[in-house]
Amino acid sequence: MKDAYVAPTLPQPYLLFLGDVVEPGYAKTAFGLRDWAGSKCVGEFACDGAAVSTGLERMSPAEARARGARSLVIGVANSGGVIGDTWIAPLVEALEAGLDIVSGMHMGLAALPALADTAAAQGRRLIDVRTPPTGIPVGTGRKRAGKRLLAVGTDCAVGKKYTALALANAFFARGLDCDFRATGQTGIMIAGGGMPMDAVVSDFEAGAAEMLSPDAGSDHWDVIEGQGSLFHPAYAAVSLGLLHGSQPDVVVVCHEPGRTAMLGTAGYELPSVDETIDLTLRLGARTNPAIRCGGVSFNTARLNDAEAAKLIAAESERLGLPVADPIRGGAAFDRLVENCLG
Questions:
Q1: Which residue intervals define the domain D-glutamate N-acetyltransferase-like N-terminal in the entry (predicted)?
Q2: Which of 66, 141, 181, 216 is the most buried (most CB within 10 A)?
Q3: How far apart are CA 137 and CA 139, in angstroms?
Q4: Do 221 and 250 touch, CB atoms closer than 8 A?
Q5: CATH class held by domain 14-128
Q6: What would the pLDDT profile of 219-270 be if each residue is shown by its tens digit?
Q7: For residues 33 and 152, what is the distance between their CA atoms, to the nearest angstrom?
Q8: Which CATH class for the 147-341 domain?
Q9: CB atoms within 10 A of CB 133
Q10: What's the gap between Cα 121 and its chain centre?
């Protein structure tokens, strides 16, 4: 049985770098590491003017190094994955303080002369986790052994990673044989391995997903982190390739109630949960005719407890499916887990 692709081991603990971000949605890497790998994070560091914080202690690279940090992680996932000019001096400071730099940006660290020269002079590493492995095959559509769950979304940054991680943890807690399969830079940093799907050439997306989730035992579950949205005018390609290649038996649709426009793309309304379920099942049936929707995951961070509970109950009744916020947990989440397991 062929093992899934595993990324190189990353130097930990981390200092989280927030750049000059003012929109929390673009700091999802930092928040994801705080929430799911908090024991591996010593603090945060940012440019002057940054308006976003993870709530971790703000410290300089030198202070972080003294606390045991081994690398600075760029905790930003901005549109296009670019490293801004204002980031260069802080990143050089981190290298000079003795930290490696770990990045999930599309722009390669070594392509920036100031970073490449400083890293060479200081004997530090520049690590790009958004670099796919060589030799990715074209997808075959061959049915593979094992069970698979894929988190899909109405949009980007609606909770697909958090949902997959929470479901994987719930499966583990039930004693099931399970792997969380990361498909984005934050998930790879949390899990220590995965496949950077949005850095794979489109013709090989499905093959990369097959490589990530190979044949497994009949009782084994791969819980796969989703990417983008089938409805997104910029990112639908990676979503479709991942759907076809992962061949999920179960999908969970992720949504942020109250969001009306697609992130980063003006003029495009968000699709409904109903539309997302319908399109996902129709397209997913191409490589797994037995695909089904296990339920819906809501990101209710903007709602209070009473508002969230009322909405979750109403939508569950309307859809005829379990609806839950994995972060809130509770009985609603237990019902979602049980329905996914069938």
A1: 53-132
A2: 181
A3: 6
A4: no
A5: alpha beta
A6: 999 999 999 999 999 999 999 999 999 999 999 999 999 999 998 888 999 9
A7: 20
A8: alpha beta
A9: 13
A10: 33
Residue among 306, 342, 309, 341 nearest 325 (CA): 309
Task: Please state whether the predicted TM-score (pTM) of the whole model is above 0.70.
Answer: yes
**Tokens standing for residue 11:** 């130097």
The residues that bridge with 292 in the sheet, in sequence order, are 250
Q: What is the pLDDT of residues 322-333, one digit of tens each?
A: 999 999 999 999
**Cα distance between residue 90 and residue 32, in whole Å:** 22
State yes or no: cis peptide before 248, omega within 30 of 0.
no
**CA 221/CA 3 separation, integer angstroms:** 14
Q: Is it true that 14-128 and 147-341 share their CATH fold? A: yes
Structure tokens at 75: 């905790």
Domain boundaries, the chain: 14-128, 147-341
Q: Whole-angstrom Cα distance, residue 291 to residue 288?
A: 6
Contact (CB, 8 A) for 217 and 246: no
User: Nearest-5° angle of CA 19, CA 60, CA 76?
Assistant: 20
